[in-house]
UniProtKB/TrEMBL annotation:
Entry similarity comment: Belongs to the class-I pyridoxal-phosphate-dependent aminotransferase family.
SUPFAM superfamilies per UniProt: PLP-dependent transferases
Protein name from the UniProt record: Aminotransferase
Pfam hit, one: Aminotran_1_2
Top EC class for this record: transferase
Aminotransferase class I/classII large domain boundaries: 44-393
Keyword Transferase: yes
Alphabetic keyword roster: Aminotransferase, Pyridoxal phosphate, Transferase
Species annotation: Paenibacillus graminis
Annotated GO MF terms: pyridoxal phosphate binding; transaminase activity
CDD domains: AAT_like
């Protein structure tokens, strides 16, 4: 278990800056964005940085939205989302992952999965409650948990254990203040997945300590070697797990801003109260696009997944052939090779790689202390770009390491 307060005090720049709420002052801007501002406007740089499919949203989805606009569908939707979208989400989760939810009161549609994560943290965190977050993990979890009053507890999901969360590590992190466990498998940044057997002992600990689980399953469709297993599908876990997902990744719909949360109706009703007063509803066109993607876009999703699978082989084999150890990413679209043998800090390595070889990757330390010594490379890029990035990386390693 790591130290509980990972943020450094930020500098005050004016008299007004001390008027900004302390928790907002204390968190730093996203390490990924800051890094990628360095690449802006330079076409020579190959970016394997941002976690976004390189596909545009399929044509029939865009066409469905154009028709909806022409019909004048420009109003608010019900707070919880279009009833037909909630029904499609419930059907889809049942058919794809065996999860059963009533579309009436166990599904809410949100502004991306990002809003769902924030709503859940706001709804369940009281000051001082401990929020357990595996490290390395998605860059937004610590700041949003902290902004919502939580005390952060990072547990190690180390390379040595295949970047999985283990019952031993979780057990050690539990205190009487533990309230929430945030998990994300398939994982950003490591590509790790959890099996039913991996989840079993975790679920026992969660139940024994009456925790709520926020399970971010935004990459659930993108598993390459086995079917995704949600922790919510284990006995007794549905009622204490909020499953959070969306359309950004598997359906190539990042800009539409549609996600969802599913779970126990009492917990969801608490989240819905906040959503009503803040977002009101997810964008109507995004919701119409999401209905179309679930009704007629499953083959597009499968096609994109096959592309990612091929790119994964190309890229991971390429990394290994130039001497970088890389744990097999079984899901999502990230490789997380180790640079430990170079003795370099991931930030120095990534900056030098960017400046001298024109390849942008994300230094592992931004994903928490467990990420140091690694680089996150998104392989949601064309095979030609991946091949060029590998060549540049190989020359860089030969000259500099
Ligand atoms: N969770 C994880 C693990 C992610 O990688 C991302 C996007 N990078 C999100 C949530 C947010 O996705 P969105 O809000 O677009 O649904």
């Amino acid at each position: 278990m790591y130290k509980k307060q990972p943020f450094l005090p930020q500098e005050h720049t004016s008299l007004l800056s001390e008027r900004i709420a302390p928790r907002v002052r204390e968190i730093a801007p996203s390490g990924i964005r800051a890094f990628f501002d360095l690449t802006a406007g330079n076409n020579e740089i190959i970016s394997l940085g941002v976690g976004e499919p390189d596909f545009t949203t399929p044509e029939h989805i865009r066409a469905a939205c154009i028709r909806a606009l022409e019909r004048g569908e420009t109003m608010y939707t019900p707070n919880a989302g279009l009833p037909e979208l909630r029904a499609e989400i419930a059907r889809y989760l049942q058919e794809s992952f065996g999860l059963e939810y009533h579309s009436q009161d166990e599904v809410i549609v949100t502004v991306g999965s990002s809003e769902a994560l924030d709503l859940a943290l706001r709804a369940f965190t009281a000051p001082g409650d401990e929020v357990i977050i595996p490290s390395p993990g998605y860059i937004a979890y610590s700041p949003i948990a902290y902004l919502n009053g939580g005390t952060l507890v990072e547990v190690e999901a180390a390379a040595e254990q295949g970047f999985k969360l283990t019952a031993e590590a979780l057990e050690k992190a539990i205190t009487p203040r533990s309230k929430l466990l945030m998990v994300n498998f398939p994982n950003n940044p490591t590509g790790a997945v959890m099996t039913y057997e991996d989840w079993e002992p975790i679920a026992e600990i969660v139940k024994a300590h009456n925790l709520i689980v926020l399970s971010d399953e935004i990459y659930a469709e993108l598993t390459y070697d086995s079917r995704h297993v949600s922790i919510a599908s284990l006995p007794g876990m549905k009622e204490r797990t909020i499953v959070i997902s969306g359309f950004s990744k598997a359906f190539a719909m990042t800009g539409w801003r549609v996600g969802y949360a599913c779970g126990n109706r009492e917990l969801l009703a608490a989240m819905l109260k906040i959503h009503q007063y803040t977002a009101m509803c997810a964008p109507v066109l995004g919701q119409i696009a999401a209905v179309e993607s679930l009704r007629h876009g499953l083959r597009d999703k499968d096609y994109m997944k096959e592309c990612f699978r091929q790119r994964r082989s190309l890229f991971v084999e390429g990394l290994r052939s130039i001497g970088l150890h890389c744990h097999e990413p079984q899901g999502a679209f990230y490789a997380f090779p180790s640079i430990r043998h170079t003795g370099r800090k991931s930030e120095d390595f990534a900056l030098q790689l960017l400046r001298e070889a024109g390849v942008a990757v994300v230094p592992g330390h931004v994903f928490g202390k467990g990420g140091e010594g690694h680089l996150r490379c998104s392989y949601a890029a064309s095979p030609a770009k991946l091949a060029e990035a590998l060549e540049r990386l190989e020359s860089f390693m030969k000259v500099k390491m």
